[in-house]
Amino acid sequence: MTGAAWALCVLGALGALDLVLASAAVGRRMPRLARNRSGAVRGPLAWLLAALVRAYQLTLSRRMAGMCRFEPSCSAYALTAVRTFGGVRGGLLACWRLLRCQPLSRGGYDPVPVESARGAWRS
Amino acid sequence: MLDPLYHLAADAIVFFHKGFGPIFGQTSFFSWAFSVVLLVICVRILIFPLFVKQVKSQRTMQLMQPRIKEIREKYGHDKQRMQLEMMELQKEHGNPLLGCLPIFLQIPLFIALFHVFTHLSPMGEGPGGALVWRPRVGLSADQVEQIASAKLWGISLATSFRSDGDLLEFLGANGTHVKIVAVVLIILMGATTFFTQRQIMARTGPVDPQQAIVQKVLLYGSPIMLAIFGFQFPIAVLIYWLTTNLWSMGQQFFVIKKMPPLTPDASGRLPGAKPTTAAERPTPARPAPGAKPAPGAKGKGTSNKPASLTKATSPSTAKAPRSPAAGNGSAPAGTRSPRGASNRGGQPVAPAKQAPAKSAATRQAATKQAAKPSTPTKPSTPAEGGAKPSAPNADTPATGEAAPAAVNGSAPAKPVPAGATRHVGGSRPAKRRGGKGKRPGGRR
């Protein structure tokens, strides 16, 4: 197996673990395992993505501040999304948001969707 | 994936060399080095408009932030309403925000430059791993050879601080000289990065303590990181970095000079922050003397959103010429109303007094807004133009006049009958006038 294949396998495993941890069933059965005290999904992928976004916010975002058309801004959205929905779903949500954040979009208020059925996330 | 960009950049270097070649000599190090510099400058010029836009929207965001916070506190529970309010706010300021995607669109450009500058060297594909010239990044083997083997005191664009003996020998380069030049370039690079970082810190103003620490780390850390990386990369990349750093430094100077940072005023708020206390709230709109009260003028002072932070701070420049376009039946400031009453004396003194007190930043924003086409959706009577802006700028003398006017009750809100003449300074509340002296002209 080549390096790229290994990386893909590891990433897939992390993604699967992340999806399991963020799933509703695990959240209900083992809430302490799935989520930490502040309600963020545990797991390496979510942690990694959140750390990346946080690093961006603390360093680069200052240089590029004031570009985002949305409230909350893309990085804040990404952070909330990853904490709420885990690395895979939250990451996809964040990517989708980044794609929407361009001059053609309307902008405005666009919070992370809340999963009301589960009620796992309270602001 | 980025091959077209690589080819474009590489061909641009060759193209620029056609210009520099006759000047410095076809095989001169300088003609290739200047080609590299010119390419970098061209790329930076290409994305310069993006930078200007970004700085502008950054300033707008800074002005909007207090309002956004307020809206979130007010309507945080109500998604629909919040969306509505945000749209309203963005419409008010115009929407200069480019969005986050344009930032990501620049990244391939820098990757392409970096890629091309690191790949202008021979490859170890000869017999027994010997170095040979090969076509790379869209250039023929011959062209790559020309670029990489152009030397000045044994320094070639393809050599780096860490390049091994094989490469140096193959190129006929002098390792010591390369090391010296690399160190000099790295030091210059670190210095320019440091200064740019400091300028950015100065421009964007104060931050919370956590961010301040990160900034400090960044201020000293990023030059060091760049320097460490700098030892790995060839001279061409170092020249590229130094050029971009110098360019961004110039950009920061330009920004600081043209648009000074917005600093909180005496009351600790940014200019344009909405007043919070009851005394500072905008006074109810007062119709111009001799003008019909605008439809729905009653109670507008409360339901109306306060004037736009950037737009309304300059009533005399921005509002007055626009009022006729608004067409809500009120007489524009400084003109005669249709019914014959002169407005000149009746105009409140506030705007005139206020003008010098305005900060440079808001004035600039206002003039910018004035250049924009009118927005007929905003209801604006000239009197509002006079009364409102007194509130957002809480530090001006005008607030002293606005507050008593609100306290006085119904009197100021009543429209003055048509044809009534008003003496100079008539818009001032009587109480205040009494305190200052009997005559409107002042004490003698």
Automatic annotation (TrEMBL), chain B:
CDD domains: 5TM_YidC_Alb3. Residues 273-283, 293-302, 320-334, 347-383, 402-413 have a biased composition (Low complexity). It is found in: Cell membrane; Membrane. GO terms for biological process: protein insertion into membrane; protein transport. It is a multi-pass membrane protein. GO terms for cellular component: plasma membrane. Residues 32-256 form the Membrane insertase YidC/Oxa/ALB C-terminal domain. Keywords: Cell membrane, Chaperone, Membrane, Protein transport, Transmembrane, Transmembrane helix, Transport. Residues 303-317 have a biased composition (Polar residues). The chain crosses the membrane at residues 29-52, 96-117, 177-196, 217-242. Residues 429-444 have a biased composition (Basic residues). GO terms for molecular function: membrane insertase activity. Belongs to the OXA1/ALB3/YidC family. Type 1 subfamily. Required for the insertion and/or proper folding and/or complex formation of integral membrane proteins into the membrane. Involved in integration of membrane proteins that insert both dependently and independently of the Sec translocase complex, as well as at least some lipoproteins. Aids folding of multispanning membrane proteins. NCBIfam families: yidC_oxa1_cterm. Interacts with the Sec translocase complex via SecD. Specifically interacts with transmembrane segments of nascent integral membrane proteins during membrane integration. This is Membrane protein insertase YidC. It comes from Frankia nepalensis. The lineage of its organism: Bacteria, Bacillati, Actinomycetota, Actinomycetes, Frankiales.
